[in-house]
Design a protein that fits this description.
It contains 13 helices and 11 strands. By secondary structure, the protein is of the alpha/beta class. The chain is elongated. Helix 12 links the parallel strand 4 and strand 5. 21% of the residues are buried. It has 3 domains: 122 residues, no CATH class; 124 residues, 5'-nuclease (Rossmann fold, 3-Layer(aba) Sandwich); 59 residues, OB fold (Dihydrolipoamide Acetyltransferase, E2P) (Beta Barrel).
Amino acid sequence: MSLEFFIRMIGMVVLAVGGVSWGVYLAQIAGESAQLYGVVMGLLGALVGLVLTPFLTTRPIRAIRVSLGQTNNRTLFSILSGLIIGLIIGALLSVPLAQLPRPFGQILPIVFTIVMAYLGITLFVSRQEDFRSMFAGFLHRQQSDAPKASEPIEQVILLDTSVIIDGRIADIARTGFIPGTLLITRFVLQELQYIADSADGLRRQRGRRGLEVLSDLQKNEQVKVTITDQDVKGNHPVDEKLILLARKLSCPVLTNDYNLNRVAELQGVRILNINELANAVKVVYLPGEPLTVQIIQEGKEFGQGVGYLDDGTMIVVENGVEHLGSKIPTVVTKVLQTAAGRMIFARPDGK
């Protein structure tokens, strides 16, 4: 027997008894048969109790519980603080209001307390960052006489599905360059599972590689990985859910998805792009520097040879087709940064 069914039965009985009492009272006023009025009002009360009781008890409680489960700790603390402060102020100011003549002395204290509680919650939630900064500054001043080594604030980073499938995040985490906690949501895991179960062989392979990367991350002692049930209301795509959750938690999103990168920047969400990181850590070559290149294929232009560095940077060598399959010394002539990455032009070293 479910809790909702049990509550329905209680509501039906209570309102049925109330309906019978109300029917007898109406029968006495109208001078009619008390039995008829009692039966009719009792059945009406039982029906109302059976239908409406969950909407007045279990359903609101369930909605509140779900809402609190999706609220981060900082906002929840602000709500409770505002509620307590508002109730205290409302209770103090209700004392003089209770001295007013009837019915104001009975109604206004209750109304005023509810209004102050609402205003307190609204104020604390809307200005939670200001209150947090003020409170942190106060604690810092209190501890200034006995300074201690403060621990850095742990940062939370949301992971996108694409960056998990990419796999490079595991290598980066292994180096210890990622501070804080990598946060993986349930809806990202569900999308990853959906890709791993795809009928398409390539998609299935990518999804399984993503699951293996997650397993490697959880075993890595250099980084902390947490799986969260936090979600956002509404039926949104995964990328939009990530952006909304990142705004809610005030944290960045780690991705290599170009479209997600652009959309998130427009909405004021910080993005950590692995592709930008990869381009930033590539070795910088200046014109005139020597460079040894393995020529592996012909270039687009006549006589050009093409080779690649270990990080994937393309090297275009003038007259390099003559040395196809050989490793030759070259001199850098030009470095070109394109949307696809960095490209280096060189010529054979004619010493």
